[in-house]
Amino acid sequence: MDQLKAAIETMTRRIVEILESCSPSVYLYGSVVLDDFKFGWSDIDLLVLTEREISEIQARQLVNLRQTLLEEHPENRYYRLFEGGMLTRSACLANKADRVVYWGTSGERITTQYALDVFSLCELLDSGVLLYGKDIRNCFSHPSFDALKAGVQRHYETIRKYAGTSGRSFYTYGWLLDISRCLYTLRTGKIIAKTAAGEWALKEKLCPCEAVLAKALEIRKEPDRYRQDASVFDDAETIGEDIQRYADVLERELKINAGSTLCPDRAGAAK
Question: Within the chain, what is the greatest distance between any pair of CA atoms?
């Protein structure tokens, strides 16, 4: 974890050096702050919000910063794991066009739009860590339960579209953890780490394929241990039906909550 800490500190310092004239606020959120970071599976999620627009020169310096730091520190593999967006606070709040630097799993680019999904916004507001600058999260409204349901609905539709058949991928098991977290959000109105959500779903006996979910948790907790295990990839090709059976559970939960503006926990408290 010393390398992880060093990577976060160095990345923050270099971003601030480039954006000093823009008064940046740098946030860390996601699995790292939720104590659920697993090297070989997780990303390091950053959000950088500025008071003034990022210039074209600054954007060009930032867009390749991950690769630059990886070349400067080849022994530290964490630099390639940073993901997120950098843009003005006003554009982020209004979801309007801006000069945006984006880092993602598929690469990096300078673009014109960036928005946090509802899960990421909750993580930022509830547990995000300010690494540098002025904390401006009070400018954001916390998502309503309706917004959370809409976010879960989008996840559900993605699962139905892309997880109908499972390929020989290490991350296929992640769909089961995504479904678990969606179910937890519908039941509580809160966002928790994916590992914790999977453990909760097993305890509540929500998954019709408990053994597969348990395997997903094992892989999530120790990805390096299983990355060279051929049987994991063999099994990944066979669990598409199990994922869809679990998605049936999520579908039913969405229907139960269709007309509710309060999550069940809060509705119960209101009575």
Answer: 59
Angstrom distance (rounded) from CA 239 to CA 177:
13
Q: What CA–CA distances, in Å, run from 159 to 48, 166, 216, 243, 244?
A: 29, 11, 16, 8, 8
**Domain range list for the chain:** 2-139, 145-270
Tokens of 248: 């049936």
Using pLDDT thresholds of 50, 70 and 90, give the confidence band for residue 270. Answer: very low
The pTM of the full predicted model, rounded to 2 decimals, is 0.92
**For residue range 44-53, what is the model confidence (pLDDT) as tens digits?**
999 999 999 9
Please report, as a single letter, which amino acid is at residue 247: A
CB 155 within 8 A of CB 182: yes
Name the nearest CA neighbour of 80 among 61, 104, 114.
104
**The two three-digit tokens of residue 103, written as one number:** 């880092």
Candidates 147, 122, 117, 152; CA nearest to 254 is 152
- Decide: 66 and 8 in contact? Cβ < 8 Å: no
